[in-house]
Here is the input.
Amino acid sequence: LKKADDLITLQEQGRFEILSIFDPRYPGLLRNIHTPPSILYCIGDINLLKNVGIAVVGTRKPTGYGVEQTRKLTAGLVKANFVIISGMALGIDAVAHQSALDAGGYTVAVLGCGLDNPYPKTNKRIREQVEACGCVVTEFPWGTPPNPSQFPRRNRIISGLSRGVLITECTTKSGALVTVKHAVDQNRDVFSL
Here is the structure.
């Protein structure tokens, strides 16, 4: 009960927002996927969740070519007024978020843990920028640590918020391919480099 009271206090202080699937601010694209999250926890501009977005995902260990092309493609998508959606992971995700911000655009980071978890720690600076100029969102409650089983669930939200998914470099066992599978199931366009 104390944990629930603490969460209510944090929310009342404006530390984060909670969107129920019944909230009119809940993104319509996400509401219509096969298994939409019933609750979203958000930090930042929740209005971005309703803007037209493209997911940009890929490997955690990109080549120089992959990084360069992700930057170019992301900047072009931002110029075309797309919000960039990704998973705040190392590699291509981080490049996509940073490139969107550098191009003067907006980005949404979907986490596989609670909002209070600074995972991955190496993306701390990017995450702070996204919280200030974009939106960080998760279906996992405050206090939830990262766990490998949570990332495929996170990936369905990445594709669910998006009109399409751009994948730039990945291995055959990449989590990015899980996002692509969700995108196909959700009838989203998929683009690859």
In short: The chain has a mean pLDDT of 94.
